[in-house]
Write a structure and sequence with these properties.
Protein name: F5/8 type C domain-containing protein
Number of domains: 2
Helix content: under 10%
Organism: Streptomyces agglomeratus
Structural class: mainly beta
Pfam family, one: F5_F8_type_C
CATH topology of the largest domain: Jelly Rolls
InterPro entries: ConA-like_dom_sf (IPR013320), FA58C (IPR000421), Galactose-bd-like_sf (IPR008979), Polysacc_lyase (IPR025975)
CATH architecture of the largest domain: Sandwich
């Protein structure tokens, strides 16, 4: 039996960057707020106007400062095209394993255009690399978020203006079958592909962010003359990083849809579906030590906690554990403790391991002071 004093502590935010984070650029350090005169230290400037890249105090995603990018059709050509970007230097080692986390807010003026634009890209090395098009790019096109991965488009849904969207990219830069591309949008994994991630060369692709609109240089049709967006919470990591080190920091409050609920045991009158029907007067009940309710969110997501409401929860405590899994077969324990015994309302717990990529949550009952029945009226996973 678990100790009665287990605290339901919230996830703690690290005071310093984890070891795998190579660079944080959230614009909170005064030394980083060098725009528009120059790019922050170690990065390259690719804009030609006083408004191309600036620091602002609103809107922000992480802290009190962000970067604002503006590109106009009339702007001078920079590096052979129309762009307002900040670029890594071309010094990424061959075969690099890299993480990139950032948040983008498209201004309300970002209306649908007949012409696409890149808002983050990974560029081939400048000398000795084949091809000129980036092997990987995040775009807006036809009113939608899209990824161009080695010439193949991946549609990631309609964009919304005036709202922050969090992105995490994990790329193993390889030219053979050992390459990997993973992408998370607002904490939900939306891309997982293996195989070659670029076409070769002495170095891995390097990262650029901002606005790049090539059609304004080629004379292709375009129905707008200005683009404005905001960029914040940038973190770059190496092979030692994991998702939670890189993702823009977010409250553990998002409640993903539960696609299905099952259980290791249940009585016919109180099936597992009753624990996800938004009704605190119904319940799942299963008898015995280790009886478990299993929640399936439908796809891998960044999960960080759960809410659980117990039948007779104001009259008795319940000892229980929560395990998480990507495949429904192999589970990892992410929390253990005791309900308060003072309420029938949902109680929130945050995983002691921090957020992790998972599809399934298994809530296992171990004891209460009255009997050997697990009875949960409502349960939900929480995500970033």
């Amino acid at each position: 039996m678990l100790a009665a004093g287990v605290a339901l502590a919230p996830v703690q935010t690290a005071m310093a960057d984890p070891v795998g984070v190579q660079r944080t650029l959230d614009w909170e350090q005064s030394a980083d707020r060098t725009l528009p005169a120059t790019a922050p230290a170690g990065l390259n400037k690719q804009w030609a106007t006083s408004y191309g890249a600036t620091n602002v105090t609103s809107p922000t995603r992480d802290g009190s400062h962000a970067a604002r990018f503006e590109l106009r059709k009339s702007d001078p050509v920079v590096s052979s095209s129309k762009r307002a970007e900040i670029s890594q230097r071309d010094e990424q080692p061959a075969g690099a394993d890299r993480w990139y986390g950032f948040s983008i807010n498209l201004a309300n003026t970002w209306t649908h255009d007949t012409s696409a634009e890149i808002v983050s890209q990974w560029h081939h090395c400048d000398v000795g690399c084949p091809g000129t098009s980036p092997p990987l790019a995040l775009l807006t096109d036809e009113g939608r978020w899209k990824i161009d991965f080695r010439g193949e488009p991946i549609d990631l849904g309609a964009y919304t203006t005036g709202a922050w969207v969090d992105w995490v990219f994990h790329v193993t830069w390889r030219t053979d079958s050992t390459g990997l591309l993973q992408v998370w949008k607002n904490g939900e994994r939306v891309v997982h592909q293996t195989g070659a991630t670029h076409d070769g060369g002495p170095r891995s692709p390097y990262f650029k962010f901002g606005i790049y609109k090539w059609d304004w240089n080629t004379g292709a049709p375009s129905s707008t003359t200005q683009r404005v967006m905001y960029y914040d919470a940038l973190r770059l990591g190496d092979e030692r990083a994991v998702h939670r080190d890189i993702t823009p920091q977010r409250a553990c409050t998002r409640a993903p849809v539960v696609a299905a609920a099952s259980a290791t045991t249940y009585e016919a009158a109180n099936p597992p579906s009753h624990a996800v029907d938004n009704n605190l007067t119904t319940r799942w009940s299963g008898r015995g030590f280790g009886a478990a309710l299993i929640l399936d969110t439908g796809k891998p997501r960044q999960l960080c906690g759960a809410t659980v409401a117990w039948h007779r929860g104001d009259l008795r405590w319940n000892d229980y554990t929560i395990h998480a899994s990507q495949d429904g077969v192999s589970y990892t324990k992410v929390w253990e403790g005791r309900s308060s015994g003072t309420t029938t309302a949902p109680e929130t717990v945050h995983f002691t391991s921090g957020a992790l990529d998972a599809r399934y949550l298994k809530i296992s009952f171990w004891a209460n002071p009255e009997n050997d029945w697990a009875s949960i009226t409502e349960a939900r996973p929480l995500g970033l």
